[in-house]
Amino acid sequence: MTARHPFRLLRLILPLLALPALIGCGGTGAPEPLSALALAAVADKPGVSRERLARAVDALFTADGVGQTRALIVYRNGRVVAERYAPGYDPRTRFLGWSMAQTITGVMIGQLVADGRLRLDETAPVPSWQRTGDPRGEITLRQLLQMRSGLRHKEASAPRAQSDEIRMLFLDGRDDMAAWAEAQPLEAEPGRTFEYSTATTLILADLAARALTESPDPALRRKAVADYLQTRLFDPAGMRSMVAEYDRAGTLIGSTMIHGTARDWGRFGEFLRQDGAVKGGQLVPSGWIGFMTKPSPRNRAYGAQAWLNRKPKEGQSSDPPMLFPDRGPASLFACVGQGGQYVIVSPEQKLTVVRLGQTEAEDRAALAARLADVVALFPKR
Asked: Which ranges of 29-100 does DSSP label H, i.e. alpha helix?
């Protein structure tokens, strides 16, 4: 056998000697150091690992596949423990809540029920439904709140420009959105099926205006609802940045068009977490928040103008779930809006998480998973 040349042996040995160093540079090594920006977003003593919370928050701003996060706030037991904004946004920026506005409308309806102006289990007082023989006259306020009116509606259908909520908000229904929504025929017996419907919340907003004024004058309708919201909810809850939009008929666009700062959306979440109370003052009966966060008879993942952290009944759509029922407490609930707007409330964890930004529908599940990462850091009380 001939001896190997020493330089050939060296070429064989060197790669083996380098293996430990290469392994040490792999994914099992130490994590990347946090940026100063990521760490500065978290309070000194957030109640959990500051580094882990900073990383979970940072991922919402930097990870691929979750869209663009523009604002993120975490409240724990009433205290802000994390707050971060994307460039171009700050604590003064008002963000459109999209469908998160529906939960505000649901709270207002609860206040009107408590005032005796509306009744939960009586037929909804929509004038056009009161004609003899009109089956829509059987629809109750409870059924409207739980999205089981039976009215014909297709949300986010294709083609997008012909989807019912788009037609109502921006096309043929835009001048009198409630009238457009109330003109829809029944496609199912009232109470029998769940159908998420932006139009249904416009009907609730119309009922609120009718309960507060008998005048059909748009300016008076607008003023009546605006004053009620300001004095009964926004001012007492400290949500002073909130701005609501109205259509030409003077109806609150309570399904989508309410703007507010991230902190004020967080204050709304804290108000819900405390069963409708602020500093010991009850703005809405606590039983009403319990009703809003109780599973609907036709969809366990939905209450009354609020989404719940539960799986729908078998056979119902969960494509994908709005929240993360396999990870967070079943008592967790949320206001959820188009494009990935979230106010997540977890009473058991004394937690409110606000995320505002823009995420496409196909990335919503990934976004929800990142939000679940934040929530999972906090123990139950």
From this structure: 36-40, 50-62
